[in-house]
Amino acid sequence: MFRLELDMTPAEIDAIVDEEFRRVEAETLEQFKMVLAEALKIQRATMRMGGGYDDQTGQLRSSTGGIIFKDGKVLFEDFELSPYGTDKEPGLKEGRELAYAQLRTSKGWGIIVVAGKEYAGWVEGRGLTVITLAQNELEKVVDKAFERISV
Questions:
Q1: Per-residue confidence (pLDDT) for residue 138, from 0 to 100
Q2: SS3 per residue for 26-44
């Protein structure tokens, strides 16, 4: 007969499990930050090259950004003012508000990218890019991010 005895208390086992859980969560957040940064980098580079549309106020470009959340709590956000325009602040505010509004029913981990101006869909409907490149990039790289998280 073989008998195995564990030289640890239940509290020590719980501490090890909790530490591993925190490590995986921290690694998940870092991977999601890289995914969001890459998606928004591509989107912003396109917008800075003109994006094919005029944005004299800078509001549409400033309303574009994203958040990372877990169970409805924002862990990280990435919004920035357009490098040009005459009235950028309202766009930034509307983008953040729209992203945060999506959290009401959000469970688990997630990334939300938005273009906060109500006419963003109209601009995209004309064949110009506002947020589509960022969304497409997220879809391409999020699975790779999960593969990089070591469990």
A1: 76
A2: HHHHHHHHHHHHHHHHHHH
